[in-house]
Amino acid sequence: MNYKSELVGVLGYPVAENPTIVMQEAAFRELGLNWRYLNLEVPPERLPDAIKGLRAMGFQGFNLTIPHKVAVIPLLDEIAPDAALIGAVNTVRCVGERLIGENTDGKGFLRGVREEARVDPKGKRVVLLGAGGAARAIAVELALAGVAEITVYNRSQSRGSVMVSDLVARTSVKATFHVWTDTYHTTPDIDILVNSTSIGLYPDVDAMPDVDLSDAHSSLLVCDVIPNPPQTPFMRAAKARGLQTLTGLSMLVFQGVIGFEMWTGHKAPEAVMKAALEEAFEV
Ligand code: NDP
Predict the structure, then answer these.
(1) Fewer CB in a 10 Å sphere around the end CB: N or C, the chain?
(2) CA of 223: how far to CAs of 95, 116, 134, 206, 231, in Å?
(3) What is the 142 CA–ligand 1 centroid distance (Å)?
């Protein structure tokens, strides 16, 4: 018998309600892997100690959530190029003694676009609502995937303009910023529209971004980052117009899939992971 489990987990503050454990442990069970995923509550000032501890205990990798995604960077040995462009790390893989920082949020989004929505982002025109961490990750991965143009609408001027100037300086994508003061009216030339704000997140489940979809092209792909509940009012409004949708649950599952594959080297059981999260969210 081998009573020693391989360890991964998430460092955050707080972490009690972080649901990633549910899909990762379901995947370990499905593949018969003796691995465990732990929710580890680490206050900001203890992060350096925690990272030393993970190194000492031989963790295979870990996730980072609020408030550690930026603070962890100087504590790691290497940062993947896209995570460096995004300026945040949400997944670390341990290769020998080295801790390598990755960002799977935007990668998970992109995988959903390609594999679930079956849309090739190359050459597409994208509108992103929001300019926080999720928006930055999505924008960088879309830029690296060769979209033609990204237009960002954000409520606060400062965050939006910094995000777009970083994007233009660090990638070759064409990007513009507009302050989002009143209703955003979609135009028929837009191919992909993403709500990357926190509007609609539980418990504020009736909230909807101020968007008018009436002029959307029938092929517009409408995406949301909100994983819980996945059928946000925004997703429902797009569906009601017959538009294709991609939920934040898909993004969450795919970023977990990418983490699982980075850590274990095995192909992730995507359907099992998605079902586990749906059960947790009572979808
Ligand atoms: P941030 O706090 O970094 O950014 C929040 C963004 O939402 C900002 O652009 C903010 O605008 C905007 N916003 C919030 N409330 C409003 C409002 N009432 N009206 C207009 N704009 C608003 O958060 P994150 O980017 O980290 O996360 C955003 C969402 O993405 C969260 O709900 C999170 O759960 C989700 N997420 C989902 C993931 C997934 O895998 N599905 C992965 C990561 C995040 P302003 O700059 O003006 O404040």
Answers:
(1) N
(2) 34, 12, 13, 17, 11
(3) 18
Assign 2 a pLDDT band (cuts: 50, 70, 90). Answer: confident
- 205 CA distance to ligand 1 middle (Å): 14
pTM score, two decimals? 0.96
Residue 173 in this model has a pLDDT that exceeds 90: yes
Instruction: Please give the pLDDT value at position 130.
Output: 97
Mean pLDDT, the chain, rounded, equals 97
Burial 114-145 (b: 16+ CB within 10 A, else e): eebbebebeebbbbbbbbbbbbbbbbbbbbbb
